[in-house]
Design goal:
By secondary structure, this protein is α+β, with helices and mostly antiparallel strands. 26% of the residues lie in helices and 27% in strands. A hairpin with a 2-residue loop joins strand 7 and strand 8. Helix 1 packs across helix 2. The longest helix is centred in the last third of the chain and has 15 residues.
């Protein structure tokens, strides 16, 4: 999976503002205020979000993609989202601008499921990716998972800072990627 890619898009713009079993509400509250004071709602994603997510991923440029994700074409993005909704637990960040962030934990039946998080290039560096990750980690902990894992490109310093701040530790690296793990149970 991937992480929130960095972007050169203007991040200072301040907007006004599932096939798998239905997930339980996140142990975290649904409201979030970003560093610009804009209010967002973090909530479980459902099938009705598919079109909004497909459109969001259509706005990602080459610099906004990492490890081949999100897919480049609309048809591949739709198939990828179908898989994530079937096998994973998904949350979105939604505000007046619509859905601008997505995080997924997959597969849901794994003892150590994998996290991926994406934020629309225009809305990065606001804390949305961090908050999406917190919801995913809280969900994994609430469902007694041993750990959450992810891969991240070594050069993605912003994502590495977020993950390390959340407690993820590097467990191995290969080529340009690092494999990170956040233990959720004692002794794991």
């Amino acid at each position: 999976m991937t992480t929130t890619p960095t972007s050169t898009a203007d991040r200072s713009a301040d907007p006004t503002a599932e096939r798998s079993p239905a997930p339980a509400p996140s142990p975290r509250g649904p409201r979030f205020v970003d560093k610009f004071g804009v209010r967002w709602r973090i909530r479980a994603a459902d099938g009705d979000d598919r079109d909004a997510l497909t459109a969001m991923y259509g706005d990602f440029g080459t610099a906004d993609r990492a490890q081949g994700l999100p897919p480049v074409t609309e048809s591949r993005t739709e198939r990828w989202l179908d898989d994530l909704f079937e096998r994973g637990w998904n949350v979105v960040a939604e505000g007046e601008a619509g859905v601008v962030g997505h995080a997924t934990l997959t597969p849901t039946d794994a003892d150590e499921p994998e996290l991926a998080v994406f934020v629309h290039p225009t809305y990065q560096d606001r804390g949305l990716g961090t908050e999406l990750c917190r919801h995913i980690v809280a969900r994994a902990a609430a469902t007694d998972r041993a750990a959450v894992v992810l891969t991240v490109e070594r050069r993605n310093r912003a994502a590495l800072s977020v993950y390390r701040g959340l407690g993820f530790e590097t467990v191995e690296g290969e080529r340009g990627d690092l494999w990170m793990r956040l233990p959720l149970t004692d002794g794991s």
